[in-house]
Design a protein that fits this description.
This protein is mainly α. It is flat, with a radius of gyration of 25 Å. Helix 2 runs antiparallel to helix 4, helix 3 runs parallel beside helix 7 and helix 6 crosses helix 7. The protein is built from nine helices and no strands.
């Protein structure tokens, strides 16, 4: 029996080690994180330029025109800018901010896993910001039929105001403050902001 066990050990193939060493895997992870950080930064800058050069007269999914596109990214940029501005208004600024924070954290912070696990909540702060901005009337220079929070913000705001259980002005103030606090909390949660960072941000204001 012992001889049989010895022969089986001799004849058994040698155990294979990992293809890549732990050092190589660590380096590959760093390269991937740096690439992801650069990708997020590129998306944020591109999106900012797309929205900065947004023109309501450019061709989009809801309008066609033979005039030249004024968007810096051409027809591609105008087809992104119009639905984003239409739905969220200037809430897109928070979207750019969040992407920039992600880019910074992927490069300098050691909380990647905590941040990645929260990506599923990405739409929530954008939604609350849109409703918050819709509580404020736009200036006379605003050339759009919807408010600062886009159609989404206006629709949710009207729905909440039509509940009618309070005076409209009082309810409007409550909605504004509530959604401002929700935006602050959700943005901090999504960007994995800790208490120390939150305190520093509050001190700035």
């Amino acid at each position: 029996m012992k001889r049989l066990d010895l022969m089986s050990v001799i004849n058994s193939p040698p155990a294979r080690g990992p293809i890549f060493s732990s050092k190589v895997i660590t380096k590959l992870q760093k390269i991937l994180l740096r690439f992801s950080s650069f990708l997020f930064l590129s998306i944020a800058i591109s999106l900012f330029l797309i929205m900065l050069s947004y023109n309501i007269g450019d061709p989009s999914f809801r309008s066609a025109t033979s005039e030249s596109t004024k968007n810096l990214f051409g027809s591609f940029g105008s087809h992104i800018a119009d639905p984003l501005h239409l739905s969220l208004g200037i809430s897109y600024l928070l979207l750019i901010f969040i992407i920039l924070v992600w880019s910074w954290r992927l490069t300098f912070d050691d909380i990647k896993k905590r941040m990645i696990s929260r990506l599923v909540f990405f739409p929530l702060p954008l939604a609350t910001t849109a409703v918050f901005l819709s509580t404020y009337p736009p200036s006379s220079e605003w050339q759009f039929t919807y408010g600062l929070g886009g159609i989404f913000g206006d629709t949710i705001l009207v729905f909440l105001l039509e509940t009618g259980f309070l005076d409209p002005n009082t309810l409007l103030h409550i909605i504004s403050v509530s959604f401002a606090l929700l935006t602050f909390f959700l943005t901090g949660f999504l960007t994995a902001t800790d208490l120390k960072e939150a305190k520093k941000l509050i001190e700035l204001f």
